[in-house]
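Design request, tokens follow.
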């Protein structure tokens, strides 16, 4: 029980998100801390209420409506596991009653695998959702039902600025078109590439500031998007973006990615995951002088060819960077505003030595304090301790790493000299070598004893 009570609030929030309403009510009785956390306005604001309309009964609805009338539900997800069946009259009335009660507090509505009849029920209450800004229409099976006309008409009564939609049929494109004048944040889940091309080429999105293109892993696209398929309509939209995220699993060709980067001159946040990019693309990224956040989780080779030269990133306004060790991209010395670094390995035996050595060579880095350094799925042996002697880090996070136990002694020294202030470890494994000092720190318990002022959060730690 003690191990549960010492968990930070963020971890408890994540655990509570898996509990149904009745279990949440019982959890309030466990201890005073849980009671205060589960009844705080902050928790109710971030909690997502998951509902299956076919399971809503009068008794359950009355309890939920009471909480809804107090403004406790800001996010609701409707999940329909039987899309082909017709809802009962009781479930229809219960769903309408609950959504109407949430009308003044609901700002995030998520519709997952909903049938046409469920969407029609939602459209009856949409006009009363005066605070609704986030709308998700998604499908876990890659299919969307026919969206009723009343649903499109109800969209004119709300001010949705964030849309997340699965491009599985023509109705999804029409939904984007109806909401286009107000949309600021758009996520397109590409099931059919033709629908994505239509959305970006034909729909005018005057207020759009953030675009995310996702290709679900379980979707099949025989032919990806090639050069020449996007036109001036797409380039006009990209030119006004501040955030661009591409998670495509190679469905957008590397040449097309270069074309997109060429038109994204005002981007401040750029993410490219699970795809490829050319050296020219890296050069285009290095020209984005206003870029503040960069995440590149790419395959080892750009376009399947070995790198002739390792591209260097030198951006004057870059504050946060997230790189994969195997890609071979280098950090330049001119990164004056860098505050957060995430280095991720493709497996637990990857080494982060090269990227860490480039971090400590950044001009003036020894006189600054990094807000966060996160190392994910890498091996840290005794030869990678140079950065611990140079960097000053507010929070050092290690996730899924294999760590030489001798580094714990170096961490102790860094804490003594006020270079590390908080340590977070998740699912890390410590191994011993001949470099471990006699009588040195071997475990997290020993580290706590040596450094009582260091804030340590750890879970899933093991020792070889």
């Amino acid at each position: 029980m003690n191990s549960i009570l010492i968990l930070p609030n963020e971890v408890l929030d994540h655990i509570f998100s898996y509990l149904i309403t009745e279990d949440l009510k019982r959890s309030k009785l466990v201890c005073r801390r849980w009671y205060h956390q589960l009844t705080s306005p902050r928790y109710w604001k971030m909690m997502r209420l998951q509902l299956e309309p076919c399971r809503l009964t009068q008794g359950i609805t009355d309890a939920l409506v009471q909480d809804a009338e107090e403004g406790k539900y800001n996010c609701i997800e409707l999940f329909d596991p039987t899309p082909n069946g017709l809802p009962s009259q009781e479930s229809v009335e219960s769903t309408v009653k609950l959504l109407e009660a949430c009308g003044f507090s609901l700002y995030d509505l998520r519709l997952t695998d909903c049938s046409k009849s469920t969407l029609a029920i939602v459209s009856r209450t949409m006009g009363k959702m005066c605070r609704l800004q986030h709308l998700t229409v998604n499908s876990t099976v890659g299919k969307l039902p026919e969206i009723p006309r009343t649903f499109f008409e109800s969209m004119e009564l709300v001010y949705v600025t964030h849309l997340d939609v699965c491009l599985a049929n023509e109705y999804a494109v029409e939904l984007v078109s109806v909401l286009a004048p107000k949309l600021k944040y758009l996520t397109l889940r590409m099931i059919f590439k033709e629908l994505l091309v239509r959305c970006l080429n034909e729909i005018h999105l005057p207020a759009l500031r953030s675009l995310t293109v996702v290709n679900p892993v379980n979707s099949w696209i025989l032919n990806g998007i090639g050069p020449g398929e996007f036109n001036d309509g797409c380039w006009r939209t990209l030119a006004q973006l501040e955030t661009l995220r591409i998670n495509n699993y190679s469905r957008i060709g590397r040449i097309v990615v270069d074309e997109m980067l060429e038109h994204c001159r005002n981007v401040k946040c750029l993410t490219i995951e699970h795809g490829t990019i050319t050296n020219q693309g890296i050069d285009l990224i290095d020209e984005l002088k206003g870029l503040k956040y960069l995440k590149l989780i790419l395959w080892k080779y750009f376009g399947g060819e070995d790198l002739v030269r390792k591209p260097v990133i030198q951006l004057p306004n870059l504050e946060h960077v997230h790189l994969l060790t195997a890609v071979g991209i280098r950090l330049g010395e001119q990164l004056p505003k860098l505050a957060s670094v995430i280095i991720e390995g493709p497996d637990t035996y990857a080494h982060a030595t090269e990227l860490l050595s480039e971090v400590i060579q950044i001009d003036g880095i020894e006189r600054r304090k990094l807000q966060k350094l996160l190392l994910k799925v890498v091996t840290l042996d005794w030869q990678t301790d140079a950065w611990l002697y140079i960097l000053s880090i507010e929070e050092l996070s290690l996730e899924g790493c294999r760590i030489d136990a001798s580094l714990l002694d170096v961490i102790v020294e860094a804490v003594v000299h006020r270079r590390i202030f908080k340590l977070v470890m998740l699912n890390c494994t410590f191994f011993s070598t001949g470099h471990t000092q006699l009588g040195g720190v071997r475990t997290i318990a020993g580290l706590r004893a040596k450094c009582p002022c260091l804030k340590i959060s750890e879970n899933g730690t093991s020792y070889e």
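Comment from the thread starter after seeing the answer: thanks! The two ends are 26 Å apart (CA to CA).
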